[in-house]
Every structure is written in C-alpha cells, then in structure tokens.
User: Fold PRADC1-like protein isoform X1 from Trichoplusia ni.
Amino acid sequence: MLVPLYSILILVILISAVSPGANDLHFYDGVSTADVIFGDVFFEILDPPELRYSYRIRPAKDFGTPFNESVKFLEAKLVPTVPLHSCSDIVNHDDIVGQIALSERGECSFVYKTAKAQQAGARAVIITESIDRWDDSLDHLIEMVDDKMELDVNIPAAFLLGRSGATILHTLRNLKKTYAVINLPINMTHVPFSKMNQPPWISWIL
Ligand SMILES: *[C@@H]1O[C@H](CO)[C@@H](O)[C@H](O)[C@H]1NC(C)=O
Ligand SMILES: *[C@@H]1O[C@H](CO)[C@@H](O)[C@H](O)[C@H]1NC(C)=O
Assistant:
C-alpha cells in the first residue's frame, strides 16, 4: 500500500512543479509548446553588460520579410528610434542605417513603424511594449498583422514580449547609451532552459 501512495505523491509533486511554467506560457488555443518556440526568435545583448541576456521576439505575422537564414546580425547595433514611436520621420537615421531599429508600440500601426524604420535605413525592426506601460498578461494577444495600408515593407519585423523592451529602453537611457550591441538570431533549439540566460525579470518564458 505504501508504494502506490508514494508514487501518487511523487506524481502530484511533479505535476505541481510543471504546471505553473506551462500555464505561464501564454499559449494560443490549440498551439503546442513546440509551435510557440518554433515561431519565436531569440537574440542576445552583448553590451551593455547590464542587459547581457537572451531575449525572445515574435516575428510579424503577415508583413515584412521572414526571419529566414538570410537574416543574420553579428554584433549589430540595436538603436532606439527618435522619436521612439517611429510614427514620423526618424531623425537619428545616421545611427540606424544598416542596423536594427528599436521602436515602441502605440500612436500608429506596426506596419507604419516598420515602413518608417526601413525608410531610415534599418535592416530590421523590433517593436517593444511602450516604455511607460507594459503588461505581461497581454502578451498572448499581441500578434503583429498587416493593417492593409498597402505599405511596401521588406525588412523583418518582430515584437519584443513583456517588460524586456521597457527595461532595455530604460537601461540605455540611464546609461546615456544610444544603442545596444546584439546578435540576432541565436540558436536556442537545443539549449536547455537552465542555460537560456533569460533576463531575471522574466519569470514566465518557458
Ligand atoms: C529570405 O527571405 C528573403 C525575403 O523574402 C528572400 O529574398 C531570401 O532569398 C530568403 N533567403 C533564404 C535563404 O531563404
Ligand atoms: C540550431 O542548432 C542545432 C544543433 O544544436 C542544429 O541542428 C540546427 O540546424 C540549428 N538551427 C539553425 C537555424 O541554425
């Protein structure tokens, strides 16, 4: 009798240990973990050291070009746009040309921001939650789709989930830095969770 009880106890412990992480994954209905990880892309910040972690981004669904094998940035600059919302002409285009633009959500559509970043010479754009507000609980609703503005966008675009974007923006601002140095993408396919070097403010990512 002792053995089955013991097994059940182990099972209960295992289930309770696994469930929180699983629930925190923000699944779409009917989408498997593999699909979620498969669709998302990771990049890492090399500098400043305060931000040296791996970050997860969600590629735009139906605009821009795909994050395929042609998209490879080594020690590229991730440059916050001026203005940050990227809804009008970007004034720091000299810093952005050939690099990756970082814009915040709001004021205009994702496609419009991407078009503006492209116009400024960016080779990719990452859009974050607004610097002044973020809400992890809304991440699962964020899917960047074309707003049918018929803009010709041909750089890759992605959304940086959760509070990472705001943290990156705040940290760069505090350090008076105009960019971070990043590698994009990084291959996480066979990297175990414990080795993923997630930012400490992310508690839910896998
Ligand atoms: C990646 O996508 C771009 C834009 O669609 C395309 O021009 C390029 O050929 C693709 N590269 C590979 C290796 O598939
Ligand atoms: C990622 O790394 C694994 C081996 O760890 C390799 O099989 C896979 O092809 C890599 N993927 C890319 C996109 O480089």
The beta strands are 41-47, 54-59, 73-80, 100-104, 124-128, 157-160, 180-186. Residues 5-195 form a domain with the Glucose Oxidase; domain 1 fold (CATH 3.50.30.30).
